[in-house]
Amino acid sequence: MKDFKGRGKKQKPKFEAGGRDRERPPKKFDRRSEDSRLKTQDSRLKTEDSRLIYGLLPVLEALRANARRIEKILIAEGAREHRIAEIFELARAHHIPFQKVTREALARLVEPGANHQGVVAHAAAADYRDPDELLEEIFAAENPLVLVLDGVEDPRNLGAILRVAECAGVAGTFIPEHRAASLTETVVKTSAGATEYTPLAKVKNLNRLIEELKKNNIWVVGTSGAADLDYADWDWTRKCALVLGGEGRGLHRLVAENCDALVKIPMRGRIESLNVSVAAGVILFEAGRQRDALEKERRGEREKGKKGDGEV
């Protein structure tokens, strides 16, 4: 396989190119805690390798997932939201120190205007997945749905897309190393905790990634307002990778040319396009709807077969 991390060394391909039928598919388509024993000194905040997670849901999901080390949790004095109680419980269960501070102190930690909702956690930096390892998992999956982002630069859009991807059961999301948003506190916050669950990897060259996906029998479908095919007419029940372009400009020319097909979301109003995170939700959940419908149909056929076998 190509070395997607761009380390400058040649590697033997990990996966053999498996041919596939390239024919166009047919249309179908407060409780407040006073436990002062867990309080620590302010010097604990000065961890250069830590990353902030703020907001009730992002902090809760980070604690529930327990996928990366939480160093300390700060709670605003007087916070009474019922979900704060669960944060206290999980912090105790994982032996994570927490401390009550003023809302002003929390506001100084996050970006101006950010809604921290009275809770901030210092955590080890969220890691990207190794792209080769993630691809290996995807190729081994029975019927994966993959997401590729071609230059989404707004961190709030990236966070919203990752939230959609997690909810839609996407097996992995790939972003380019350059000219794209990275994992930041804003992305984590906007994702509502989805970054703790959905695999995200950076690659040096999206076109090489697309070729690797195609070699391994995954149909690569891009989006374009000029496409002839509606998104609902594509057969999403097979192994597919959805490629979404960046804000405003859409897909790069070569990326679009390398896709197996381009689809569009028909616009019924006067605005020409949807926000990229909304487009991700529309298409990914259509893919899920088609897959659910096919599974339901197969389940019905199996049950009918069982009844037939039992008839005399």
Explain what the structure shows:
With 312 residues, the chain is an alpha/beta fold. It folds into two domains: 45-124, Ribosomal protein L30/S12 (60s Ribosomal Protein L30, Chain: A); 131-297, 3-Layer(aba) Sandwich (Alpha/beta knot), CATH 3.40.1280. 35% of the residues lie in helices and 17% in strands. It contains nine helices and eleven strands. It has helices at residues 56-65, 82-93, 103-109, 131-140, 155-168, 185-190, 206-215, 253-258, 276-310; strands at 50-54, 70-76, 98-101, 119-124, 145-150, 172-176, 200-203, 219-223, 229-230, 240-245, 261-264. It has a seven-stranded parallel beta sheet, with helices on both faces. Strands 1-4-2-3 form a four-stranded mixed beta sheet. The longest helix has 35 residues, at 276-310. The protein starts with 49 loop residues before the first strand and ends with a helix. Residues 7-19 and 24-50 have low confidence and may be disordered.
